[in-house]
Amino acid sequence: MQVSDDILSLLEEKGAQMAKEAQRAVILQPGALGDCILTLPLAKLMREALGLGGIDIIGHAEYIGILPERSCINSIRSIDSTDLHRLFAEPAQFDLADYDPLINVFSDYAWIITFMGEPNSDFEQNLIFTANCSRSAEIITLSMKPPDDAKQHVAEYCTWQLARESGLAPDRARTRPDDVLIQATQADRNRGAEILEQVDIDTSKRIVVLHPGSGGRHKCWHHENFASVAQALRSADIEPVFLLGPAEMERFDAPQKARLCETAVCLPRPALSDVVAVLSCADAFVGNDSGVTHLAAGMGVRTFALFGPTDPALWRPIGPALHVLRDPGERFTREPAPDLQKTLLERLTASEDEPATS
């Protein structure tokens, strides 16, 4: 009888574990690339601490499309393919028909984490109602912005909020600043080599990728700094490559773009998957406080993040080879900074150095 009881107990325990692992979670993340990458430590914590079988993300496809098969995210759904805007209605005006497509969006999930709406808002109330039309689900609304008086990194602030709301021990909320969040594939490396060879980059040399843009002008180091650094790298027999996304192609005038492109090869408007491919072949990356800088650092590329007015204590990228250089003065965006150029070049041309956050 004792043996039978032991076997039954073991089967029940295994069944409970299998049921737990069959549970899935979804994260609603409407932010840009940097916010999506800074959400990955939260997703990783959920998988590890809650024993989930999978984590999906709903967001803008142009930012989250690179995550499956390279990160802890299993699958994605475009925010534009859903009717989430309906959830902002006043609860008295919100209605769901039988077999409403909005119910199906959440029917597979036991956990729903949202960065849309506010706690106790109309959005949250309508989301709770919608999710519970198909199953009982834990729904937690989080913020990507720490309080003004906080000095907590945004990724850790997100995991701390989850721990507080879900009952996890506070020590589980700690993030690891040297995590590799995104793993490039062999296909990425093959594609990166192909792109670089097409623009006559010698892939036998050291390659430094530079991205002179960001979502906000106030976060952009003066473009002449990037041109001077690229010119110096070429003199050191290092191959510099500029990534110029749509924002940079529109923001920079013709002389500025010409200045950059005369100092290094420029890749205009690359798809994000091609950015991943090129970064997978890079020896180092230089960029502002931007989504692409978060991407490079998260991939484990030796990353030099240039910060001006924004605080790296809150917004620095996560990665094992991150170096933060900061110039909070007004000249950051307005004029060249030869001293900071010199510091950056000394670190770039060194074969190896220890990650630094200031």
In short:
This protein has 16 helices and eleven strands. The chain is α/β, with parallel strands linked by helices and 358 residues long. It folds into two domains: 11-173, Rossmann fold; 186-349, 3-Layer(aba) Sandwich (Rossmann fold).
Describe the fold and architecture:
Mean pLDDT is 92; it is low at 354-358. α8 packs across α12, α9 runs parallel beside α11 (254-263) and α9 (223-235) packs parallel to α16 (338-349). The protein has a six-stranded parallel beta sheet with strand order 8-7-6-9-10-11, sandwiched between helices. It has a five-stranded parallel beta sheet with strand order 3-2-1-4-5, with helices on both faces. The protein has helices spanning 2-21, 33-38, 40-50, 61-64, 101-106, 122-131, 154-166, 186-198, 223-235, 246-251, 254-263, 272-279, 291-298, 312-315, 331-334, 338-349; strands at 24-28, 54-59, 75-78, 111-114, 138-141, 207-211, 239-244, 265-268, 284-288, 303-307, 322-326. It is built from 16 helices and eleven strands. It is α/β, with parallel strands linked by helices and 358 residues long. It folds into two domains: 11-173, 3-Layer(aba) Sandwich (Rossmann fold), CATH 3.40.50; 186-349, Rossmann fold, CATH 3.40.50.
